[in-house]
Amino acid sequence: MYGSPHFSYLSENISNYTLKEFKIHFISKIDPLLRKEENMKKTLPTLLSLILLSIFLQSCSSMPKEWKGLNLNLQSIKEIENQKTEKSFSFVVLGDSRENISAYKKIISKIDELNPKPLFVIHLGDLVKNGTKEEYNEFLDITGSLNIPFLAVAGNHDLRGNGKKYFMNLFGPLNYLFDYGNNRFIVLDDVTEGKEGLSDEQIWWLNYALKKAKKKNKFIFMHIPPSIGHLSTDFSKEVSRFISILRKYENVYVFCGHIHDYDKFKYKGINFYISGGAGANLGKRALTFGGYFKHFLIVEVQDKRVLDRVIKLEKE
């Protein structure tokens, strides 16, 4: 037994603070696991905590009452925590459902029929097209039929208009991690407010989370893949630092959406997967492996290896 899953997140709205203050805030006030590992006893000034609380409360204005503080990601991780920890298990990856409700319904139905059941399902972003309340309501209606813990990554389309406010109340923080067995799962926001890439704080947090993981497998999920190899994307900021950090660790698996196809390749020893076929119009670009079809992935984590299986959706 490796222990129960752990939920942690990188605080939003802290870009105005110094890196030192950021570290204190993250370790001391937000993440009890990493706080224990570092044995840190510092705390943030009360004033800073009140400022962050004020920012959060402002973000909840004009929100459907049933959405406020719903935090579906945390609820799903609690469901995972209540399950027996197994060395071998599976999880499902999909991305970019957007406006194609018909295709997304079929994919959700197929996932719900899987036997054995996956541990969880994670959507790599672009749940909806324009970030509206109506779109999120429709997405929730469809996804709510799923009898499997569901996690979400923020996509650029999800945060349009008031979308960021809706997304964060529905699903919680945009950056988070949890552990299950001998595995660490890390979710990164690389789309907020058009920045496309990772901030200094996120780079620090990622490095720290990997360094302290002490887990065999490290799974990373984000929306936009980095601009590497045959890929040319908007994620060009901090790419070299991002890759150099990942190369320090073994058994790293990175899952991204945004590109509407299936792709799989290795870059400097790191395993990359693209899954953007959950509904949005399929793209056309060079691939090293994969194809253009609507699909989702089943990732099988076994004692000595990690396998992926592509499940194609029949043509509509």
Give a written overview of the molecule:
40% of the residues are buried. It contains 9 helices and 13 strands. Residues 12-61 have low confidence and may be disordered. Helix 1 packs across helix 2, helix 5 runs parallel beside helix 6 and helix 8 (200-211) runs parallel beside helix 9. With 316 residues, it is an alpha/beta fold. The protein has one domain (8-312): 4-Layer Sandwich (Purple Acid Phosphatase, chain A, domain 2). The strands form 2 sheets. It has an 8-stranded mixed beta sheet, with helices on both faces. A hairpin with a 2-residue loop joins strand 9 and strand 10 (270-275). The chain is 30% helix and 20% strand.
Give a quick rundown of the structure:
The protein is an alpha/beta fold and 316 residues long. The chain has nine helices and 13 strands.
Give the arrangement of secondary structure elements:
Blueprint: E1 8-9, H1 19-30, H2 32-38, H3 46-59, H4 72-81, E2 89-94, H5 101-112, E3 121-123, H6 133-143, E4 150-152, H7 163-171, E5 176-180, E6 183-187, H8 200-211, E7 217-222, H9 239-246, E8 252-256, E9 262-267, E10 270-275, E11 290-291, E12 295-301, E13 306-312
Parallel strand pairs: 2-3, 3-4, 6-7, 7-8, 8-10
Antiparallel strand pairs: 1-5, 2-12, 5-6, 9-10, 9-11, 12-13
Helix pairs in contact: 1-2, 5-6, 8-9
What key attributes describe this structure?
alpha/beta; 316 residues; Purple Acid Phosphatase, chain A, domain 2; five-stranded mixed sheet; eight-stranded mixed sheet; single chain; 9 helices
